């Protein structure tokens, strides 16, 4: 399996499919690169080189004790991009991966980047604070942390069977296989890395990072996202990023990489070819 070596020696696994202009996919919590497989296969089959990595602490990458926060995640992404010498790349971040992409731009700029995409992403800032009164109360994230310590396996099962894919909505039909894949990928993540990542995606302020976006940007978000609410995530990001394009998926949940994979693939391909 291919790896790149981060600054602290951590091994970051990646999957590199296809040939053409590069597209880099950053996954959500507590998943890994496999969560992108539908989009990676589709885009690689349509003339792009598509790279998806496992964030440190997740999947097949090193389970480090330190570095489970956005600055290091972004620096690891930079190592991947620099080591593979990617240029004119499109960065696509789903959920927590959207934060990783935003922080990459804030720390490393867009010299190697042609386009940016945020999908169900956590920027600009999820946590409710005095200067972010529309955010999500800290108690919601404390509940995730408590669930992780009490019974991590059941937490992932409850998220997959409930809000992540909108399976708790009347009439929803999300396959057992999709829900099992979420649970399985979650348990491949290291306990400490997954636990600390909750703070990374919820309490990191990406507003200044979004202000540094200076390439064409597409924002995609479902308006029934129960994990990263549309008003907190996609709507606010699209309003903040200059000249961003916003695509809203009516009635769509958080996990649109699976529930709306065909629509998402088509929208990504259209943007890549624009």
Topology:
Elements: E1 3-5, E2 11-17, E3 21-26, H1 37-44, E4 48-53, H2 70-83, E5 89-94, H3 96-108, E6 113-119, H4 138-161, H5 176-188, H6 191-203, H7 207-211, E7 217-222, H8 234-240, E8 245-249, H9 256-259, H10 261-272
Key features of this structure:
eight-stranded mixed beta sheet
Brief summary of the model shown:
With 274 residues, this protein is α/β, with parallel strands linked by helices.
Q: What assembly state would you assign to the polypeptide chains in this entry?
A: single chain
Quantity of strands, as a count: 8
Helix content: 40-55%
Strand content: 15-25%
Alpha plus pi helix count: 10
**Overall mean pLDDT score?**
98
Structural class computed from helices and strand pairing:
alpha/beta
The first-to-last residue Cα distance is: 33 Å
Task: Indicate the radius of gyration in whole angstroms.
Answer: 17 Å
The SSE string, one letter per element, is EEEHEHEHEHHHHEHEHH
Write out the strand line-up for the largest beta sheet, numbering strands in chain order: 1-2-4-3-5-6-7-8
The biggest beta sheet reads:
8 strands, mixed
Unreliably modeled segments: none
Shape: globular
């Amino acid at each position: 399996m291919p790896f790149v070596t981060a600054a602290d020696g951590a091994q970051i696994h990646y999957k590199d499919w296809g040939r053409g202009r590069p597209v880099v996919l950053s996954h959500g919590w507590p998943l890994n690169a496999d969560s992108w497989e539908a989009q990676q296969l589709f885009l690689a089959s349509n003339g792009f080189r598509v790279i998806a990595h496992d964030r440190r602490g997740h999947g097949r990458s090193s389970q480090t004790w330190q570095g489970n926060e956005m600055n290091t995640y972004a620096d690891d992404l930079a190592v991947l991009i620099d080591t593979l010498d990617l240029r004119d790349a499109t960065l696509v971040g789903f959920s927590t991966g959207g934060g990783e992409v935003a922080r990459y731009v804030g720390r490393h700029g867009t010299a190697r980047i042609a386009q940016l995409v945020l999908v169900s992403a956590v920027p600009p800032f999820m946590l409710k604070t005095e200067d972010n009164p529309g955010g999500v109360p800290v108690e919601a994230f404390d509940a995730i942390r408590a669930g992780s310590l009490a019974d991590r396996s059941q937490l992932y099962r409850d998220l997959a069977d409930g809000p992540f894919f909108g399976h708790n909505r009347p009439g929803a039909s999300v396959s057992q296989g999709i829900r099992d894949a979420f649970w399985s990928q979650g348990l491949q993540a290291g306990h400490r890395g997954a636990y600390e990542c909750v703070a990374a995606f919820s309490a990191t302020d990406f507003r200044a990072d979004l202000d540094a976006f200076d390439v064409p940007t597409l924002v995609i978000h479902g308006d029934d996202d129960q994990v990263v609410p549309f008003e907190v995530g996609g709507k606010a990001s699209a309003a903040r990023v200059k000249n961003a394009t916003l695509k809203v998926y009516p009635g769509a949940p958080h996990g649109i990489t699976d529930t709306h994979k065909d629509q998402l693939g088509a929208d990504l391909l259209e943007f890549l070819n624009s």
